[in-house]
Amino acid sequence: GAVASVIGNPQLADPVIVVDHANAVVGWGTYNPHSMYRVRVLEMAWEVEVVRNPSDVTKTAVRCDVGEVIKRRVRKAFQLRRDVFPDWFEKNDSDNVNTTTTYRLFNAEGDRLSGACCDVYTDRRTNVAYAVLSSSSAWTQKFQKEMIEALGSEANVDVVVWRVDEKMLKLETGAAEWVAEKRRGDDTEAEDDDDDDDDEKVSSSAEEGEYATKIFDAKTGALTSLPNSEEPLVVVENGVSYEVDLALGHKTGFYVDQRENRASMRGWAAGKNKVLDVCTYTGGFAINAAMAGASSVVGVDSSQPALDIAKRNAARNGVEANCTFVKAEAFKHLEWLLEEGHAGTYDVIVLDPPKLAPNAKSLTRALPKYVGLNKRAMRLLRPGGLLVTCSCSGAVTQNNLLPDVVLAAAQSAGTSATALGAPRGAGADQPLDPFYPEGNYLTVCVYRIG
Question: Global pTM?
Answer without folding.
Answer: 0.89
